[in-house]
Amino acid sequence: MKSCNVTMEEMENIGMLSTSFAGDVLVKNQYYNIQIFKKDRHSRFICDINTPFLNYNTYSKQIIASGYAVAFLKYIPNKHDRSLYSILQEEAKTHREGLWNENHMLMNCLKKKAK
Q1: Among the four 9, 29, 40, 65, which has the fewest Cβ within 10 Å?
Q2: CB atoms within 10 A of CB 82
Q3: How far apart are CA 50 and CA 6, in angstroms?
Q4: Are 90 and 108 in contact (CB under 8 A)?
């Protein structure tokens, strides 16, 4: 990701950390209710996973609040949720949660690109 001045190796490393987070919070062999909102310009599904057993009721909110992802606000369907995701992201940044701890420059760059 050249525009963030990051090597592919760095991107792979943070990807592995985020994947590890997912493995820690999502339970194997558990059925989840997935809500599909739409497709993006590459025909990938924009969706969320309902997770009533976590601190937040969806995986997207949990991963952003935990600092392992940035919010792509343009894909969030309603204004109230966009505001909530922004707050969760700023709190994770302020408290240096997850990737915001050691990779704050990269996370800031990704945050700018996610608008």
Answers
A1: 29
A2: 15
A3: 32
A4: no
Confidence of residue 2 (pLDDT cuts 50, 70, 90): low
44-69 confidence digits (pLDDT tens): 998 889 887 778 889 999 999 999 99
- pLDDT value at position 93? 95
Token pair in block for residue 75: 């894909």
Question: Across 6-98, where does the E strand assignment appear?
Answer: 34-39, 45-49
Q: Which of 44, 45, 83, 88 is nearest to 69 (CA)?
A: 88
Q: Partners of 34 in the beta sheet?
A: 49
Of residues 40 and 52, the one with the higher pLDDT is 40
Strand partners, 48: 35
Beta bridge partners of 38: 46
Looking at domain 2-113, its CATH class is mainly beta
- Determine contact, residues 40/75, Cβ cutoff 8 Å: yes
Amino acid at 83: S
